[in-house]
Write a structure and sequence with these properties.
There is one protein chain. Helices cover about 95% and strands about 0% of the residues. By secondary structure, it is mainly α.
């Protein structure tokens, strides 16, 4: 019977050693869980910061989109104004060409009139000479 008691005692010692190892393992697991909880807490904090940053970026993007819309509208207005100015320049160029044509015609007519006046002056001088020549004959 003593032998059985020694076997039981040996087994109890082994169970105590196993329980001690299990307690050590549980202690390590508790430590690991504590570290994990700390890591999760830091991750939650980081996610909160990221969400805040994303919110600020969204606000900035909204502002930039508004400014972009304003600049697009301004650009469209400038393009329209440029088209109007281009049309006015074409109109002015046509008017200048028309005026140049009128001036050339005017200069050409003036030259013709100068030649005509010159001829008339010569005829007038000739007639005066003829008249002066005919007067003594009377």
């Amino acid at each position: 019977m003593e032998h059985i008691l020694r076997e039981i005692l040996g087994e109890v010692k082994e169970i105590r050693i196993d329980i001690s190892e299990l307690k050590s393992d549980v202690s390590l697991l508790k430590s690991d869980v504590s570290v994990l909880k700390s890591d999760v807490s830091m991750l939650k904090s980081d996610v909160s910061v990221i969400k805040s940053d994303v919110s600020m970026l969204n606000e900035k993007v909204d502002i930039l989109e508004g400014k972009s819309d304003e600049q697009r509208d301004l650009l469209l207005a400038l393009e329209h104004r440029t088209e109007e100015n281009t049309a006015q320049l074409h109109s002015l160029a046509e008017n200048i060409n028309y005026i140049k044509g009128d001036l050339k015609k005017g200069f050409d007519n003036q030259k013709k009139q100068e030649k005509l006046l010159e001829r008339l002056s010569l005829r007038s001088i000739e007639h005066e000479a003829d008249i002066a020549h005919l007067r003594p004959v009377r």
